[in-house]
Write the structure tokens for this entry.
Amino acid sequence: MEKKLKFACQTMSWKKVVEEDPELVMHSVRDAGYEGIEFAPIQSLEHLRDMALMAARHGLKLLNVHPPSGGSFLSVDYNAILGNESVEIKPCWRWDFGGRNPTMAAFRAAAARLEKTVHYVKAHGLKPFCHVHLDTMMETEEDMERLLSCSPDLYALLDTGHLCAAKGDPVQAIKRFGSRIAHVHLKDFYAEDHENWDRHAPGLWQTARFAEIGKGNCGLDVKGVLDALLEMDYRGWVSVELDHPQRPEPAHCRGSLKHVRSLGF
């Protein structure tokens, strides 16, 4: 059987539209060709039921949902009800563990903080994952190595945009940590002066931004990322994401997946 990847749309950038007209959002996502949708926040069990039924009517799988607070335990319950295989848990921020350059002891402390939530997720039969994200304890590949080694049951959400912003290599990260990746956010990154980009500089977002797939300048190898996922037999979802699109969300939604399809996926 031919291997294939499952693509979803992360709808964070749709902001209020998600709450005011979820039917429009889901129609746009399905019309663009996606199979899944990351949709949040979920206000209640009744809201979860309504959104799951709406997604099903559009032929979409509802993924990685969470309540407005982002509370990990309730997120676990919601995703378990949906039959999802994994769930995002609250990250550990660097400023809580010594700042920019945390020690190995700090990574052990971060793992200890996550332990109760990780155990709760495991008890529900799901994989707990933390976001590879700037300013968290999983900002770089080296961070991934340290935190994952301290928390054997923790997985990673590989975010290509954040990892590129930290001057990492998503392809190498997949080859290195493939079995510990439970979810993927696919987006590009653009900096006016990428060679001298410093993620720690003041006002960093005045000269840089996350970009639509194929419109970055950080050297993101989108085909390489997707090939690497197929090579390691990745079974999770790849969610196309963009925090602040430069054009209307439906156009970005279609354009990003069109670029992915043009690469043969």
User: Anything to note?
Assistant: The beta strands are 6-10, 36-38, 61-63, 86-88, 127-131, 155-159, 181-186, 188-191, 208-211, 237-240. The chain has ten helices and ten strands.
